Amino acid sequence: MRAFSCGNCGQLVFFENSLCLRCSHALGFVPERLELVVFDPNGDDRVRPCANSTLAACNWLLATNDPGSFCLSCGLTRTRPADADTAGLAAFAKAEMAKRRLIFQLLDLRLPIGGELSFDLLSSHTGPVVTGHDQGVITIDLAESNDARREQRRAELGEPYRTMLGHFRHEIGHYYWPLLVEQTGQLTAWRQLFGDEREDYQQALQRHYELGPPADWSERHVSAYATTHPWEDWAETFAHYLHIRDSLQTAAEFGLIVAGPAVTDDESLAALPQADTEEQPFNGVIEAWLPLTYALNAVNRSMGRDDLYPFTLAPAVIAKLAFVHQRVRSWSSAIGYLTRPH
Description:
This protein has helices at residues 86-108, 147-157, 164-180, 187-194, 201-211, 230-253, 282-302, 315-334; strands spanning 4-5, 12-13, 27-30, 35-38, 47-49, 61-63, 77-79, 118-122, 132-134, 137-141. The chain is an alpha/beta fold and 342 residues long. Strand 9 and strand 10 form a beta hairpin.
């Protein structure tokens, strides 16, 4: 995430802020410019607030002449809890906050946001909800916004990490698979890294839940769930790539530079050259990422907390991340990034 400052007084402000705490000017995010700006909520001739400014604490703005009511992010939501569902709406607001971070990053990476992409944000408190992706529609169980329930589920599944933002990043990985891989002539190269997606998905899922992951899963996969099926391996790897890119951007924006320990001799980097791009080799991303994770984990331990980054990236996993990097860079450098949904 980028760092922002108030356009009126220069105070540091954050992506979620709708008000500068120093000068009390109203703030709003303009997605077309990726900027947090000062505006007049009582009548600005340039921009106006999203219709979800109260319901979902949305601080995104629309152009004054935009015929719609919702901002770019909120406009992607197809289904939400009913107005009478107080608990559901509270969870909905938390989910929309995570979704805005996702959409910001997609815009920043210049990935396409097409008209077929939409979100159903539903709560399993009122009926069965299966988080997943189906032909452009991403369904998220709003019950995951409850910290206690999500932590219980994380412990039950033995996962090192589980967040609402992580769910969004995983499911958007499924959405981008046909766009970045299948439709760009990269399927053969993808199969060499991730496996054959023609394997029966339901059988693979049943096998995973009955037998669990193989004992050596960490040598080839970023998570245990990634062993389920090549599609899940891609989605887990894609989500992890977004984690890395966002965290590195945030660190850079706040001037966090970790000079050591050196990782240039790390054997994991040997897997990278074939998947690198000339514009921005993935080696550089990993060489910045690993020292930062070492430092952040050490800081967390100093506070008596678990590791902030509880992952180990094996050479095979880094090669997959490098493939994702190459596909994202190839797309963003060749195609315009903003397609407004209708």
